[in-house]
Specification:
Blueprint lengths: L3 E6 L6 H12 L2 E4 H8 L5 H11 L6 H16 L6 E5 L5 H13 L6 E7 L2 H11 L6 H24 L3 E5 L4 H12 L1
Parallel strand pairs: 1-3, 1-4, 2-3, 4-5
Helix pairs in contact: 1-8, 5-7, 6-7
Length: 189
């Protein structure tokens, strides 16, 4: 059976995480969340752990080499599993550079032809509304505006990269969770 490899990207608050969990359950996939990897790594009391913690607490973004190293370790672990079914990468790649690097990694592990990028699209206005409604520690107006700026300057070029490579599935994220999931499953088929 061919593995299912999904990257799920979109603006902050688009419901990427929710959809990733639903896909993970439906297809019994491994889950790779960049944020989760960073939060786990920051617990280690070494230089990198402390630096990641400082970075995240200040609302900054961890640099690509740090994130990529964590991805590669996780991908190697998955590649060596006997009953590998696939995985979902939640919230990444975050830049065109990361898109190019992760595509090279997919080729290295023999998964490039199975890759599908799910773009859950919502407007900046809807993103602000949702983020203000949930109010996590990193959902201040300043942090939200900074994340939307990053999305526009960094993530949109990654989306354009995958669109050009014909690996992108555009999904209307402004619908109910159920309808977004239904559209994703239809697009995957």
């Amino acid at each position: 059976m061919a593995p299912k490899i999904f990257f799920i990207i979109g603006p902050p608050g688009s419901g990427k995480g929710t959809q990733a969990v639903l896909l993970q359950k439906k297809y019994k996939l491994a889950y790779i969340g960049t944020g989760a990897l960073l939060r786990e790594r920051m617990k280690m009391p070494d230089y990198t752990g402390r630096k990641i913690k400082k970075t995240l607490l200040n609302g900054w973004r961890a640099p690509t080499p740090i994130v990529f190293n964590m991805w590669m370790n996780k991908l190697e672990e998955l590649r060596n599993q006997k009953n590998f079914r696939g995985f979902i990468l939640d919230g990444s790649p975050r830049t065109r550079y990361e898109a190019e690097m992760i595509e090279i990694a997919m080729d290295w592990f023999g998964w490039k032809k199975y890759l599908k990028v799910i773009y859950v699209a919502i407007s900046a206005r809807e993103s602000r509304k949702r983020l203000l409604g949930r109010r996590r520690f990193d959902d201040t107006i300043r942090d939200i505006n900074e994340r939307l700026r990053w999305y526009k300057t960094d993530v949109l070029p990654a989306i354009a990269y995958f669109k050009k490579r014909k690996a992108l599935m555009h999904i209307n994220g402004a619908q109910s969770v159920k309808n977004v999931f239904k559209d994703i499953v239809s697009a995957i088929r």
